[in-house]
Amino acid sequence: MDLGISGKKALVCAASRGLGLACATALAQAGCQVVMVARRPDVLAQAADDVRLASGARVITVAADITTPEGRAAALAALPEPDILVNNAGGPPPGDFRDWDREAWIKALDANMLTPIELIKATIDPMIGRRWGRIVNITSGAVKAPIDVLGLSNGARSGLTGFVAGLARNVARHGVTLNNLLPGLFDTDRIAQVVGAQAKNQGISFDEAKALREKSIPAGRLGNPAEFGAMCAFLCSNHAGYITGQNILLDGGAFPGTF
């Protein structure tokens, strides 16, 4: 399928690994020019080479921490008016809420709620002016089915979800869409952190905890990041202009609800 976005310019945050990298790859393969932002220059450079090899697309890298004002300024200097914005940042650490002080909460809010909002604020008006824009926020399946050890993530990402719900309806008439992608368990580095915390809490090995999680997924496996990237690219496509304000869960059927 031709997604109709060849030549569009995309800014992808936390793009050097995992789901962010998958989204950058899929958008590049759809013909987008991609600016990839991540903190570690060496990892980012290798990831960008991989994306170029997979797509032949023009790829620019910005080694910066997107959760800081300086990092956001660097990203926007490289691409001031993206057609497509993919918000993403590493999730807060798991743990017990009794151990989190105000600083821990503020750090989680900065990374997983306020940073996406700042980037949306910086880019959405030019999208409105062009009457075309796509914003995708990578949040978490924990927004819909909270995970006890991920309280920081549950709270911060739910706040972003509420904000997006209102804004999406306000700008839809201008051809700009905002949607959230809610990943379940995907085969990325992040799973090691989450499963490791659960293994510790349950007093079992990492492999045992991982096997239990896989067993709980109706698909019987972890997600492939490429599957996630493909969904992101579709939401950014010309075919998805009537989809906005949605929280799309990709979890292999793990969430048991109807709605």
Features of this protein?
259 residues, alpha/beta, Rossmann fold, 2 domains, seven-stranded parallel beta sheet, 8 helices, 47% helix, 3-oxoacyl-[acyl-carrier-protein] reductase (NADPH) activity, Short-chain reductase/dehydrogenase SDR putative 3-oxoacyl-[acyl-carrier-protein] reductase NAD(P)-binding domain, EC 1.1.1.100, NAD(P)-bd_dom_sf
Strand order of the largest sheet: 3-2-1-4-5-6-7
CA-based shape:
globular
Query: Terminal Cα separation, in Å?
Result: 29 Å
Structural class: alpha/beta
Report the top-level CATH class of the largest domain: Alpha Beta
Strand content: 5-15%
Tally of helical runs = 8
Mean pLDDT: 94
CATH architecture of the largest domain: 3-Layer(aba) Sandwich
EC number: 1.1.1.100
InterPro entries: NAD(P)-bd_dom_sf, SDR, SDR_fam
Protein name: Short-chain reductase/dehydrogenase SDR putative 3-oxoacyl-[acyl-carrier-protein] reductase NAD(P)-binding domain
Family: Belongs to the short-chain dehydrogenases/reductases (SDR) family.
